[in-house]
Every structure is written in C-alpha cells, then in structure tokens.
User: Which sequence fits this backbone?
C-alpha cells in the first residue's frame, strides 16, 4: 500500500499520521493553506469549501466542491484537491476571483475563499451554457430567478453563507462569468480520468480510518468490527465528530465502493446505488422521477448534496431526512447486502424507531429501487424557515394516481412528524377510490393533520406542523386544478 | 463648505474602488487571527468548561482529573488571576465566576498541546453545582422586577393632555427577538510574551484599546506593558466591541503563566452560547392621533433583555429611547426604559445599537394602527415625517429633513410605487391563495457615540524618504471597508495616487486610547484624524515646494503625485522629489493626527441635548409575496435610496447599504433565537446554537430585484470630505420588509384588517398572521380608546439614569 498522500494544488503532499477525526479542513490549514476557514464545522456555511476532482457524468472528471470541515482528512488519500490558493494568486487572479474582487463580492473576506471554490465549480460545470448574447431572452427562460444569462445556477452557492454583502455583488459576479479559456488548466483537467479511489488504512493512537477496495473486503472488515462507523459521504458523521465530539475506534469509508455506485433503469424499476451522491443521482435521473427532481434542490445545499449519499441518508435513520418522505411515496425498496447475500426491504418497513432501522451491523445498504411505472401526480412539499439549505419542519411526499377524476392509488410519505419517517396511511385510505374533488380533499386534509405526533421545537410549533400537513394536500389539489393561482 | 468637508480637485475619495484586501480575500491570502497559529511555534490551545445550568453556585471545582489527560498543560482558574478577576469595565463580569449566571457560562479554561487534548481535558474537569432559581424570559424578569442599571426617562410636552385631546387613542404590546451576530469568524485571540517581555495579543476585536486595558487589569499590568493588534476581522457587527476582552485576557493569562503562545478560538457552538447578542425587547405603548392621522402623543415603556450583566445595555437602551421617533414628529412623548436582568448571555452591541429596537416600536405601531385609522400605511408614514424646524424628543433639531423627503419621493418615483400599489390590489383580488404587499419605510439615524468623550480619534502617518506613505489609525477593519476609505482619505489629503499609500494593521502601540470602531463612526473619526496628520505633513512639504517653485506656500497644490503652483501652468515637480528634498532640509515627514467631533453635548440624567453630529437618512420600499397555504414568502423587489452624504467610496457604501438591509431583514424575518424556557434540566439553554438551527439569510432571501441608489447632492458639512457614516443606518431599511409582510397577510382578510406580526416574521409567524386576518373582524391585540394598555411608569425607587460608563470609565484596581 502506498503511503497516504494527497495532490493539493498540483503538488503531492504526504498525509502523515492523521487521526480519523481530523477533518480535511484542519489538515489543509495545518499544511499552510489557511484560505479555507471554519465558520460552523457542520457544513452549513461553506467557508471551508474546496474542490475535489471527482468522477463526472458528461466529462471524465468534474470539479466538485465539498465542505472540507466534514470530510475526514484520511479520506483524501490519493485524491486531488484544489483550494482558493490554488485557483489563483493576488498577482494572477482566476476569472472567478477577479469578478468577485472587482464587484465588491467580498467585505470581511472570511467566507470568500469558500464562495470562490463553489463558484469555480459551477464555472467549470460541463453543460453550463454561456448564453450572454441572448440576454433578456435567456433570463425570461429562467423566470425562477435562480439562473444567470450565462447558465449559472445559483443553487451552486446555496451552501455558502455571507454575513456582510447581502449577496447581490456575489450574484452579479456569478452571472458575469464567461466560459473558461481554451488553455485553462482546470478545464483541461476535466477531460482526463479522475483519480482512482485508493484503498486506505491510516491508524493513529487507538483509532483507525479504512477505505476498503471492494465489497468483499468491507464485509471481512465489518465481521471483526461491529463497532465500526460506516461513512458514506460523511455529511452527518462529520457533524457528530465536530460538534458532539463523537469518536470511533474504526471509521470505514464506503462511498467509493464500485458495487454501491450502480445506476440502472429497467422496465420494472430504477436502481440507485447507495453511494451515489445526491448530485450524481439528480444528474443521472435528469428529471425522470419528477418527485425526486422536485426534492433535490430542496435537500440541504449543493455542497452537501455533492457529498451526501442516498444510502447515507437512509443509513442515519433521521426522522426527517428529506429523501425518506419522497422515497416512501415512491414505494421504494432498500437493498441490503451482507456476506450472506442480499435482501430487499420495503422502505415502509425499514425504519423501526428513532434513528433505528432493520439494518444489521454486518449489512450495508447497497441500493434503493424505485418500482415503475411512477404515479402520475407527485409533489414534494418542504416546510422550513429558509428556502435554501434548511432542515424541514415538515416534509411531505405525494404520489397519487388519479384516473378519470378518481384517486386510484395514494402514497404519502411524511418527515418531521414522528420518531421515524412515516406513511400517512389513514389519509391514503381517505383518498383512495374517492373523487379528486375539493370537498373530498378537505376531508382528507383534516385526516392528514391528525397523522403522526408532531413536537414543539425551535423549528416550528406542533400546531403549525400539523396544520402544514393538511395545507400541503390542499395546496397539491389547488396546484393540480388551477396551477396559475398557486404560489410556486 | 467647511475645511473638514471640502474636497480638493481630483480627489481619490469618491472613486468606486474594490476593498483594499479584495485580492487577498478571494485568493485566501488575507490572514485572520487564527491563521497566525501556524506561523507561531509551540502554541497551546484553550478550551472552556461550560456550565450546564442557567443559574447555579459552584460548590467545588476539581481540576486534577484534567491533568491526567495526555497533553493537558494547565487549567486556568480564578486563583491564577494576578490582577482583577473581571472581563468588563463595570466589574460585574467575573472572568472566572463562582456563580454561574447563564447556561454555558465558562467556569474555567484548559490549556493543552492540541485542541483535542484541551477538549478532553475540559470534559474531565469535575465541577459541583448547586442550582439556583433562574429568570429566562424578559416577561419573567418584569414579573420578578429583576432589573439592572439605570432607568432612563425621556419626556417632551404634555402627554396627559395630548391623550385627552387626541381623536384616536390606541394601545398595545410588542415583544421582539434579539439577534445573533454570526460573524463568520468566531472570537479568536492569540497571545504571547514577546522577546522584550511585552504581552502581545492578536485579537479579533473592534476595540483594541479596551482589549488592552482589560488584559492589563486582569494581569495586573499597566497598559504600556500590553500591546493588542487586530489584523482584520471576519465580521463583527458590534459583537466584537466588548465581548473579545475576556477571551483575550484568558489567552494572555495563559501565555504569561506558561511562557508559551496561547490560542483561544471559540468554535461556533461556544461562540453562540457564550457571547452576547442583540437585545430583544418588550414594549408597552399608548399612542394618540388627531383626526388627520397625525401623531399627537406617545407613551411607552421599553424593557430590554440585558442578560446576566450590564455590558453595553445602558447605552443601547439610551439609543433605543433616542430613536423611538424614527423619522416622525411626535409633539408629546414619554418613554421609560429599563434593562431586565435575566440568566442569559450578556447582550451587547449589534449594528444599530438599540436604534433598531426603538424604531421597530414606532413602525409596528404605525403598521398596526393604519388600518384602524382608515389611512394607507404609506400615507400615514408620509404625513408624519419630520419637517423643517422640528426637533427630536430629546431636543436636537432635525437637520436637513428635506433630504429625507427627497429620498422618500425618489423611492416612490423610481420604484413606481403608485402603479405597483394598484397592480398589487388587482393581483390580490385575483389570487385567493397568494397575496402581495408593498411597503415603504424611512430611516433617520443619529451619528456619533451618545457618550461625547468617545467621539475622538488618532492616526499616525509616515512618509518615507522614497515618497511611500504608511498610515495607521485607531479604527479596525471588520469588512466594512474602513481601511479602503482611510487609504483614499490619505491619498486625497496628500495628493498622491492610491498605490503610494499602504495601511498597517491596527495596534495599540501605534495609536493609543482609541474608541471602539463602532457607532458607524469609524470613517468620520479616523478619517478626520488621518486627514489632520496628512495636512500637517503637507503643510511642511508646501514650504519646501514653495521655495523650489518660487511661489507662496499657500499657492502650492498636491495632485496625483505631482506638486505644482495653483493658476500657474508652469513647473510640476514629482512628489518623490519634494519628499526627498524635505528630508535633506530636515523637515519632519511623519505626524500624529487627532480629531474630536465638535458641537456635541448630552445630559444623560435628563436625556436632553445634541448627542449627534448629524442624522443619516434612508428610505426603502419592499414588495413581498406570501403563500397563503404555508406562510412562506419571497422578497420580490426592493428599492432603496440612502443618504451617505458625499460618498468616500461608493462601492464600499453600496455594499454597506445592501448588506445592512439583508442583515436587518434577517433579524426581522428569519433569525430565530430560541432559549429553553421550560422547567426541565435544559432550562436557559440556547436551543438555536448552530448554523443548522439558527438560519441566516442565504442567497434565497436576496431580493429578486434589488435597486440601491445613494442620495445625490447631499454633502455633510460636519464630516470628513462631506461624507456620512453608513455602517448601521441601512439595517433599519429592512422595516419595509416586515411591514410589507404585514400588509400581505392583512390582504387575506377584509379591507381595514389590522394584523399583529411576531418578530421575527418567520413563515410560521406569517401564517398565524394570515390566519388572524382570515378570521375577519378581529383587530389583533390593539386596544382602542382609553385607558387601554398602560405603559409601566418607573417606581419611586428606580435607579436614576446615570450610566456607570459615563461616570467613570475605568477603575484599575491593582494587587
């Protein structure tokens, strides 16, 4: 095994004996790259954002921005990282840096290197069409106000917080970016293969980080170590480590396992590998599952979606999670794998209690399957304080089959109203076989407000949560009957 | 034009240039305090032991178990303090407490070789607590009559008879939330004892001089034995005016005791649970209008939630009282103020410093009363704006009110206000599930420290033999662009290009006895001090140049790096040549500058005087759209005209206006500080103590259309190069968002519906407001007629208002 090392801004740097709890951020700062900052240590502010060369979809490699505060430093072994310092220098600014600087995109400057990395990734995103010449017409296409005339998707910056500017100059900088030059080295890099995942073992004191090479090796490792912490993206685990001081004797990274990175569409189902990031799933599905397409932009931030995986989201067993309510509505099936083989569990049977599931310690979530065909009327409603990057007070996934004005089948998934994500079974029953009509919907909405046992907390009152369940069904009905009168 | 405000030809001030550190920001090369750790050897890391009670007595503190954790070097406790065990200026903030006053209070600090070891060491410290009863909400404190500090009283006219004669009298209550600063860079200090025995503290502080004084008094040293430097801050917003001192003192104490550099950087959770925030307030009010909707009388009691110690609560309250009029003429006014003492973090300065809280009360009153008066809110506000010749309730004439009216008219015109109001009425009539609202609100904000003595500043300017210029001043850079403006001021005053001037970091051994960079005054005060220093040098150089050019010194001009005689097309000599010549003529090429704001006076005991040099004005119109299903909303368009006088640096100023507005909108609509108010074991704990639970505005809260203009032709006579302060006033432009939300919520009910809106107006709060409007006929909680809700009057035994900070700044007690 090679001694662990990382390519940082084009130079190979030995990782050294890093502890498994040491974040990529602390490691980078420790080797002198202090551009990336710690603002929150939980992947909310993006001040630590750096670029990784990750496998792409339309090009072999894509520059993928991630929260360095959440990634274990050891997970960087064999990877290529670029930081704000690597993009340019004061004497030779990168185009993103130049736009940010001249337009007043920085005030205190603390969040700026992170913004620059997130913005640079979107600058290099394949398929970002620079349509500056179409001007107003291009803007008209994107009446949501979240895309620039140059194709820049503002959601690329949804995981970066700035407390000074009010964002206008940052948006202007993003929208002013042209296409990368022909000789741009970072653009050129995307046309070559990404760094291969490297099997890694880093031990320090009494704690160890391991990245097994394949599934078999993973099972062998887990057989001996039921105490291992499985990490597939680390966006949840990193928060535990940083904010709650959780430490594991063995951390096992499974997010690069090839067996967990499948993506398949057959006549019967869509199979989504558990270790695909949410961004990868979003891009590969490309709108084929409208309910998920509606959910993705509301799931945390782009920075988190670049790291977080579908398997990880189900693995943590969060009562909210955001994918579970959507996947429950889609009748998803969880594929669990162990040394003994695979088993399939309907997602509705998967959760057993607060952060508890049927998954055994020797099992991995290998994939999630969505049965086809999909329901005709679907929606994902997220109630939160903030539109970008917030945790749901309540999340509702709807999948209804309405034929000839009658609800033939209803699946409604709820998050944030019980110890686990749940199906709204009584509401489903109240709708099934009934006409899709306002009076029926009103009665069903009453039933929906009674589902679950919402709590009062800092996000919302129980009364509001309950009310929002019913309101979401009313809104769905209003949208499906007179869409122009309903707020987006 | 005064000498202070007059600009020379070709001034460098007024140019729209990027932040002086912009290239450093975008490349990550700009250094902040915590970035220096890597450049320092053998650094120890500090970690606090935080108490898990809102109020408790510490009955035992055992540090031995911490020493068993590998890497732990020292545990700092009260016994280690050689000087004064206090982190503030009022002797009510023990650095190491024996009584826990809020959940998360640091009782001692662990120093270790690594942060991980320090964390584990802190977890190992064994503390016994005897829990005591606690007050967590401002209402609990009012009930228990738990107040601290003086109780100011501001009165003008005859409130009693005014109410008797008023056509309409309304009364009500309002309680609103504070705000977490959430500067992206948390509190940080790095302390060491240098090769000369000097205690050197690098600190993220807005107030290096006070940090220096507190470090000195904790260590039992004189100020000349301590140097504090602030390179730059990753945001501050008032949160680093008083709060950094204790952390700097801990680091310095550790450094002197161990002989090693000590780094103290709070993580976000520690920062949010330990450091002070914007004060939340409770207000009880009665208001009287005449038949035309003109304000006749206001009687109000404001109670701020000060937290466990006084900190800056008294001056914050004073500013709240001085801003309850906002931009409106109220002939008869009585306002009482008091500071509740609660078991929470000690609330402190935050952009606006009480001004926003006072102004929120009157804007809320107008927003709630307009429908009851049958007057459109914009019309009601417009009718009550100050006119020429009127004075504030504390007796200061309102200067240039025509500029306020000009800004108002400009926003209405450029924002197409009348047409859009009509469009919105049509939209609302056609959309049962969605309503829009458009509101316009003014800002009038007094500039200067209320306490006259703070309105002074110093600077140090060096011209080197090669003509390069190094400037130093007492202000700190927190992102507001002060250093950018100061370089522009120096280049203008010396008549040299921008590139000739370099600015060195703020240090207490360069400019002493500085005021905090606060009260929006940084550019006014330090700019004038730099200008003064530059002019001393320029006058000396003019003598040299006069001889060289054969003209009178009065006719010498310095312009863009050249020196020439006025009205002569003749010889032009380079700046470098004159500097070089001056050196050989033994002319002093450096100077200390000083400035004090003239014409201020303030009697805090009776709350009368002219505490402000001038007022900054602004007007904003905001349009929102509310989803009737959920209460979620979007900010569709914002139009702002703001008065910065004659701008020193337009890119910087527009950035301040926009950033202040969005931060204000965050306070009023999104940022939701929640404390555990239950009787459970977590009582008093801050529940929203992380970025995941305390949500700041993100790009999704930015107005879809955001038009910001600076008011033209508005030079300020009394400030450097005709400019005005800009840091704080724009925050309060965000009232327009809150009022637009109120109007949109009201549109779900019948015409004339008065709506109560909680603050912050989160989607949930807006939804409840919509529900209230839908229950047509209810008018919230505004009581009509007399006596209604009567504001509390101070008791006979209430403290006289003479804040301690104004009697004595410091009492250095030494051991």
Assistant:
């Amino acid at each position: 095994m090679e001694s662990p090392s990382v390519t940082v801004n084009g130079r190979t740097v030995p990782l050294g004996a890093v502890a498994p709890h040491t974040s990529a951020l602390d490691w980078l700062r420790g080797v002198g790259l202090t551009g990336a900052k710690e603002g929150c240590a939980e992947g909310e502010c993006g001040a630590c954002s750096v670029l990784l060369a990750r496998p792409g979809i339309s090009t072999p490699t894509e520059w993928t921005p991630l929260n360095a505060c959440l990634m274990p430093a050891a997970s960087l072994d064999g990877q290529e990282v670029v930081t704000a310092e690597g993009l340019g220098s004061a004497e030779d600014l990168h185009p993103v840096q130049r736009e940010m600087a001249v337009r007043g995109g920085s005030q205190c400057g603390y969040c700026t290197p992170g913004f620059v990395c997130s913005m640079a990734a979107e600058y290099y995103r394949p398929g970002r069409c620079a349509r500056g010449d179409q001007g107003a017409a291009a803007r008209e296409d994107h009446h949501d106000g979240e895309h620039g005339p140059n194709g820049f998707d503002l959601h690329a910056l949804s995981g970066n917080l700035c407390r000074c500017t009010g964002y206008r100059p940052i948006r202007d900088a993003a929208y002013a970016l042209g296409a990368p030059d022909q000789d741009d080295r970072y653009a050129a890099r995307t046309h070559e293969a990404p760094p291969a995942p490297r099997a890694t073992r880093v031990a320090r004191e009494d704690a160890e980080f391991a990245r097994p090479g394949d599934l078999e090796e993973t099972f062998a490792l887990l057989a001996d170590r039921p105490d291992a912490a499985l990490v597939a993206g680390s966006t949840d685990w990193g928060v535990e480590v940083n904010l709650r001081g959780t430490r594991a004797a063995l951390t096992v990274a499974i997010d690069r396992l090839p067996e967990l990175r499948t993506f398949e569409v057959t006549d019967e189902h869509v199979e989504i590998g558990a270790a695909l990031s949410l961004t990868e799933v979003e891009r590969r599905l490309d709108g084929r599952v409208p309910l998920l397409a509606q959910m993705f932009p509301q799931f945390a931030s782009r920075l988190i979606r670049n790291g977080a995986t579908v398997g990880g989201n189900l693995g943590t067993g969060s009562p909210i999670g955001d994918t579970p309510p959507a996947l429950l509505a889609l009748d998803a099936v969880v594929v669990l794998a162990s040394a003994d083989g695979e088993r399939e569990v309907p997602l509705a049977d998967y959760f057993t209690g607060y952060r508890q599931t049927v998954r055994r310690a020797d099992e991995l979530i290998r994939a999630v399957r969505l049965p086809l065909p999909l329901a005709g009327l679907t929606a994902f409603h997220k109630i939160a304080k903030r539109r970008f990057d917030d945790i749901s007070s309540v999340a509702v996934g709807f999948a209804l089959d309405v034929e000839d004005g009658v609800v033939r089948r209803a699946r409604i998934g709820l998050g944030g109203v019980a110890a686990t994500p749940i199906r709204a079974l009584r509401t489903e029953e109240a709708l099934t076989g009934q006409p899709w009509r306002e009076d029926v919907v009103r009665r069903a909405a009453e039933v929906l407000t009674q589902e679950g046992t919402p709590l009062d907390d800092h996000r919302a009152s129980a009364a509001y949560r309950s009310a929002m369940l019913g309101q979401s069904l009313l809104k769905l009905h209003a949208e499906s009957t007179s869409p122009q009168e309903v707020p987006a | 034009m005064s000498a202070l405000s007059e600009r020379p030809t070709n001034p460098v001030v007024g140019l729209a240039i990027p932040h002086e550190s912009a290239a450093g920001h975008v490349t990550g090369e700009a250094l902040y305090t915590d970035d220096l750790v890597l450049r320092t050897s053998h650094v120890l890391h500090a970690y606090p032991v935080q108490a898990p009670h809102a109020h408790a007595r510490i009955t035992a503190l055992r540090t031995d178990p911490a020493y068993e954790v590998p890497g732990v070097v020292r545990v700092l406790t009260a016994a280690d303090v050689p000087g004064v065990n206090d982190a503030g200026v009022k002797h009510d903030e023990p650095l190491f407490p024996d009584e826990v006053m809020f959940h998360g209070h640091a009782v001692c600090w662990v120093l270790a070789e690594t942060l991980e070891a320090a964390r584990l060491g802190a977890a190992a410290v064994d503390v016994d607590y005897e829990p005591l009863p606690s007050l967590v909400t401002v209402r609990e404190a009012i009930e228990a009559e738990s107040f601290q500090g003086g109780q100011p009283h501001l009165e003008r006219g005859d409130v009693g008879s005014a109410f008797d004669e008023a056509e309409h009298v309304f009364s009500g209550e309002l309680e609103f939330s504070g705000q977490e600063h959430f500067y992206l860079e948390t509190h940080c200090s790095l302390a060491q004892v240098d090769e000369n025995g000097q205690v050197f503290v690098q600190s993220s502080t807005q107030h290096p001089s006070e940090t220096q004084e507190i470090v000195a008094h904790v260590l039992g040293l004189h100020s000349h034995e301590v140097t504090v430097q602030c390179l730059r801050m990753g945001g501050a917003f008032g949160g680093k005016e008083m709060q950094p001192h204790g952390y700097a003192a801990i680091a310095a104490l550790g450094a002197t005791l161990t002989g090693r550099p000590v780094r103290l950087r709070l993580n976000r959770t520690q920062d949010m649970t330990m450091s002070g925030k914007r004060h939340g307030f409770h207000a009880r009010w009665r208001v009287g209008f005449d038949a035309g909707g003109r304000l006749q009388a206001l009687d109000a009691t404001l109670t701020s939630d000060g937290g466990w110690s006084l900190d800056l609560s008294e001056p914050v309250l004073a500013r709240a009282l001085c801003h309850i009029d906002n931009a409106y003429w109220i002939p008869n006014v009585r306002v009482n103020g008091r500071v509740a003492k609660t078991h929470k973090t000690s609330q402190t300065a935050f952009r606006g410093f009480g001004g926003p809280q006072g102004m929120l009360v009157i804007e809320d009153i107008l927003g709630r009363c307009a429908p009851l008066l049958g007057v459109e809110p914009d019309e009601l506000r417009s009718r009550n704006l100050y006119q020429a010749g009127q004075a504030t309730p504390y007796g200061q004439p309102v200067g240039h009110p025509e500029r306020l009216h000009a800004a108002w008219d400009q926003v209405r015109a450029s924002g197409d206000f009348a047409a859009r109001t009509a469009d919105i009425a049509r939209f609302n009539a056609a959309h049962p599930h969605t309503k829009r609202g458009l509101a316009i609100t003014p800002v009038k904000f007094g500039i200067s420290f209320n306490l006259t003595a703070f309105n002074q500043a110093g600077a140090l300017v060096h011209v080197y033999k090669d003509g390069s210029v190094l400037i130093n001043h007492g202000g700190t850079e927190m992102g507001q662009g002060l250093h950018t403006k100061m370089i522009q001021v120096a280049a203008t005053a010396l008549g040299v290009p921008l590139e000739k001037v370099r600015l060195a970091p703020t240090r207490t051994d360069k400019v002493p006895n500085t005021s905090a960079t606060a009260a929006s005054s940084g550019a006014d005060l330090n700019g004038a001090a730099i200008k003064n220093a530059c002019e001393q040098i320029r006058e000396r150089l003019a003598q040299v140049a006069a001889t060289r050019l054969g003209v009178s010194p009065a006719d010498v001009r310095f312009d863009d790096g050249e020196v020439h005689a006025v009205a002569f097309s003749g010889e032009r000599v380079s700046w470098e040549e004159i500097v070089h010549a001056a050196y050989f003529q033994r002319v002093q090429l450096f100077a200390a500058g000083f400035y004090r704001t003239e014409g201020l006076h303030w009697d805090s005991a009776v709350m009368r005087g002219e505490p402000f040099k001038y007022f900054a004005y602004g007007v904003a119109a905001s349009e929102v759209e509310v989803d009737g299903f959920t209460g979620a909303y979007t900010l569709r368009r914002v139009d702002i005209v703001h008065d910065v006088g004659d701008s020193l640096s337009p890119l910087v100023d527009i950035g301040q206006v926009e950033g202040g507005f969005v931060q204000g909108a965050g306070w009023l609509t999104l940022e939701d500080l929640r404390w555990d108010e239950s009787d459970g074991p977590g009582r008093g704990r801050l529940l929203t103590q992380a970025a995941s639970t305390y949500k700041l505005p993100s790009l999704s809260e930015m107005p879809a259309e955001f038009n910001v203009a600076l008011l033209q032709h508005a030079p300020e006579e009394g400030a450097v190069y005709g400019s005005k302060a800009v840091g704080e006033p724009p925050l309060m432009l965000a009232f327009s968002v809150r009022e637009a939300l109120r109007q949109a919520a009201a549109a779900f009910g019948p015409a004339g519906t008065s709506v109560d809106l909680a603050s912050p107006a989160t989607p949930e709060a807006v939804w409840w407001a919509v529900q209230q409007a839908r229950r047509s006929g209810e008018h919230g909680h505004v009581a009509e007629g007399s006596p209604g809700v009567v504001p509390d009057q101070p008791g006979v035994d209430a403290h006289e208002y003479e804040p301690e900070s104004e009697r004595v700044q410091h009492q250095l007690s030494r051991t």
Notes: Confidence is low (pLDDT under 50) at residues 807-815 of chain B. Chain B touches chain A through 86 residues (CB under 8 Å). The first helix of chain B runs from residue 22 to 27.
